[in-house]
Amino acid sequence: MKFILTSIALSLLLTGIQAQDTIPAVQPQDTIPVVVPAEVVAPAEQPAAEPTTEPAPQAQPQKPAEKASWKKKMYYGGYINFSLGSYTSIGIEPMVGYKIIPRLSVGAKIRYDYVKQDLYGETYEYSNYGGSLFSRLSLFKRLYLHAEYSTYNYESYTSINSSERIWVPYFFVGAGFRQALGGRASLNVQVLFDVLNNENSPYRDWEPFYSVGVSVGF
After folding, report:
1. Which of 184, 195, 181, 169 is nearest to 218 (CA)?
2. Of 156, 148, 133, 152, whose CA–CA distance to 195 is shortest?
3. Number of Cα atoms under 13 Å in the Cβ half of residue 93
4. Rounded distance between C-alpha atoms, residue 127 and residue 116, angstroms
5. Is the pLDDT of residue 37 over 80?
6. Using one digit for the tens of pLDDT, what is the confidence trace for 110-157?
7. Distance between CA atoms of residues 49 and 58, nearest Å
8. Rounded CA separation 213/77 (Å)
9. Which residues are bridge partners to 210 per DSSP?
10. Class level of CATH domain 72-216
11. Residue 58: phi, psi to the nearest 5?
């Protein structure tokens, strides 16, 4: 009986061993990594910048060109006039001029003269006054031509101790010499002749008129 039980136990043991040999071994499968998504943190919202309004640049006023400035074209001055002889006069004559172009200018003058005249065997002293318009043309750096229309009020003696005031016209032509003194100043010397030779003129025909003066800007 023991032999039979022992045989049955051995048979079962052998059957279990064979069954294990017939079961295929289970191969371990590859491990698939599981990716856990990281938490996405949204960037903090920045406060919107306030728009800045810059003032528009203001246009700078343009300075007038120097050559267009009328002040640069003006010149000023004056003369001391004299004539010697039987009719002696000494006068002052302020003037102002304007350059139309660099070489050509126009201007105006006023004049006052002290006069001493020998007439009818007597010597008379009196004053004359008037004004004139002139034009100048520069030929060279120091030499210029001068033309001038003038009218002066004179004490005219018709007889001894009898006189009246009259206006006498002149048209002077001549030339001048200019010498620089420094800066814009210059010394001017002129010699002019009257081509009208009005009958009431106290001067002899073609008698020269001399002028010495100073101008600024000419």
Report:
1. 184
2. 148
3. 30
4. 9
5. no
6. 999 998 888 777 788 889 999 999 999 999 889 999 999 999 998 877
7. 27
8. 7
9. 82, 191
10. mainly beta
11. -85, 140
- Residue ranges of E strands in 102-195: 104-119, 122-138, 143-159, 162-182, 185-194
- Collapsing DSSP to helix, strand or coil, 159 comes out as strand
CA 93, CA 213: separation in Å to the nearest integer? 9
Report the predicted TM-score, pTM, of the whole model to 2 decimal places. 0.60
- State the Cα–Cα distance between residues 5 and 11, nearest whole angstrom: 10
Residue ranges of alpha helices (H) inside the chain are 2-22
Alpha carbon distances (Å) from 85 to 23, 52, 189: 163, 87, 20
What type of residue is 105? S
Q: Which of 51-55, 103-107, 125-129, 184-188 is most confident?
A: 103-107
**What tokens does 153 get?**
């009020």
Q: Where are the domains of the chain?
A: 72-216
The encoded tokens of residue 84 equal 């010697």
Q: Give the DSSP H or E segment for 178.
A: strand 162-182
Work out whether strand 143-159 and strand 87-101 pair parallel, antiparallel, or are unpaired.
unpaired
> Pick from 163, 169, 164: which is nearest to 203 by CA?
169
Half-sphere exposure for 3 (CA within 13 Å, toward CB): 0
CA 168 to chain centre: 44
